[in-house]
Amino acid sequence: MDTIEITLPDGAKREVSSGTTPAEIARQISRGLAKEALVARVDGQLWDLSRPLDQNTSLAILTPKDPEAIQVLRHSAAHLLAAAVIELFPGVKLGIGPPIDNGFFYEFLRAEPFTSQDLERIENKMRELASQDIPNERKLLPKPEALKLYRESQQEFKCELVGEKATEPMVSFYTTGKFVDFCRGPHIPSTGRIKAFKLTNVAGAYWKGQEGNPQMQRIYAVCFYSQAELDEYLHKLEEAKRRDHRKLGPELDLFSIQDEAGPGLIFWHPKGGLIRKLVEDWLRDELLRRGYDLVFTPHVMRLDLWKTSGHTGYYRDNMFSPIEIEKADYQLKPMNCPGHILIYKAHLRSYRELPLRFAELGTVYRYERSGVLHGLLRVRGFTQDDAHIFCRPDQIESEVEACVDFAFAVMKTFGFDRYEVELSVWDAAHPENYAGKPEDWNRATAALADTLERMKIQYKRIEGEAAFYGPKIDVKLIDAIGRPWQLTTVQFDFNLPARFGLEYVGEDGARHQPLMVHRALLGSIERFFGILIEHYAGAFPAWLAPVQASVLPLSEKFSEYAKSVEAKLRDVGIRVHVDDRNEKLQAKIRDAQLQKIPYMLIVGGKEAESSSVSVRHRTKGDLGPQPLDQFIASLRAEIENKTIH
Length: 645
Ligand SMILES: [Zn+2]
Ligand SMILES: [Zn+2]
Description:
Elements: E1 3-7, E2 13-17, H1 22-29, H2 31-36, E3 39-42, E4 45-47, E5 57-62, H3 69-88, E6 93-94, E7 99-100, E8 103-109, H4 116-131, E9 136-142, H5 143-152, H6 156-165, E10 170-176, E11 179-182, E12 196-206, E13 215-224, H7 227-243, H8 245-251, E14 255-256, E15 267-268, H9 270-289, E16 293-294, E17 300-302, H10 303-309, H11 311-314, E18 323-325, E19 328-332, H12 337-345, E20 349-350, E21 356-365, E22 381-391, H13 396-413, E23 418-424, H14 438-454, E24 460-462, E25 472-478, E26 484-493, H15 496-499, E27 504-505, E28 511-512, E29 515-524, H16 525-536, E30 549-553, H17 559-571, E31 576-578, H18 585-594, E32 599-603, H19 605-610, E33 612-617, E34 621-627, H20 628-640
Parallel strand pairs: 1-5, 16-21, 20-27, 23-24, 30-31, 30-32
Antiparallel strand pairs: 1-2, 3-4, 3-5, 6-8, 7-8, 8-13, 9-10, 10-11, 12-13, 14-15, 17-19, 18-19, 21-22, 22-29, 23-25, 25-26, 26-29, 27-28, 32-33, 33-34
Helix pairs in contact: 3-4, 5-6, 8-16, 13-14
């Protein structure tokens, strides 16, 4: 018999007879590996463990530790779903069934909709078939026979797929017991490894996604290796739902979007407005402390300005239509940059003035399609915490470092301690696709990378991902439940200074072009607010809470003392509210909890006599009686220090 040479990932070579399967090699290596194995990788391609090898190859045996293996498990679980549906509903027609993020779906054509009881029955049938540990077997059929098989079983969608997708004379199939599926594979060896899944929902989808085609029912599922992973994922989904800012916004009376006014436009209610003020105040103070100048620019400017900037070219699709006044076209601003450039150009600048850092809480308007609008996260009008830095080449390192330092101050202040950083650079092989000179790109990219390295910040470098006008750093923060959110961008621009002919007089007396950096830390105030709401699930730290303490008198008898407590707190700037409704204490506590007010101060006879309050915290519960002055001092310190808990 012929022998072939197998090269394993560690470089070790093995001589085996032709026709040996990866499963057999796994068994030769170790029993543990054979038990864990799900699929193989042969010369870079995923391959069934039971599929014979017939030539010299490199081979890796994949287990749950290999990231590629999970999608194979999910794909096999999709087949298991179809197998269960075919058993329970023999007349259904099969569509496609791919793995997706966190799970899989399979689509079916059936006159009646699948109900939640149906899903339960299907799930039980899947568990039954999984426990039988049925092998997934690969078979080959000549194409005409494959078509005949599907025609006879009246699976016309599958006929269509075989007709279109099968390019070889022999077509590969996978069987799971009685279930047969036209499929390229590969699959895990048998159904027994599918242990942790849950059918989540049914959604309609046109066959092949084309309107007018038959409407399929997609059964969606989530699937992991273990029940613990599945539970964690489902818990995270629940948490995301609980934290959804679109739900908490109205519940806490923070903001609204009014159909009467139009989609994607935000109304900040008093409580949301107060939080916005606190965020903006902190930001403005920091801007001034860090050497920025605050500027304001108009919301509409001549369309010609946007021609000069180039936005009417590459950015047109994201802009509102122009407005005509006195035979001139005006444009609602989609960006703040040209406005800041005009301020720069108002004087001839000297090298001594640089760097100039113009900052604005600048409201911009962008045309987002109604289909992509999403609460506070994707809107049509929003306020950026925007700034543009104009500097000399010798200043870029320190400017970039200051931007990154500022971004980290934002994260720390608002209670985020996990983040990811990305550096997007150009594709150096194609300088013709980019604005600016290669030496500008190299210097700016090096400044960005060196700064991150000097500050010991881990980052991912992404080649060819930069915009045509310059390299950038993106900072994504990770919220309380592990979701990443794009926040800060520090972006070089080699395009606008040239388009607007920006200059400064150098030390040599000659005219030079300054470097320009766009940077936004929070991104948009609206979006940042959405992220804050979800990160804190609406329970803002005391310094950001719209109401910091609620005074709850035990009965009307104590309302006078309650009012005096309120006055004392208000005097020192604490945001306080007295709940003097004629309600039971329990009801008042429940409502304060629902409003996520950090402190509840319960007052009755004992407290009035001793000038104290009984303190209850929204998460720590009953903290017992405290002298009023002592409570005020500790809450003031908590606010002052912007304590996060
Ligand atoms: Zn398949
Ligand atoms: Zn800009």
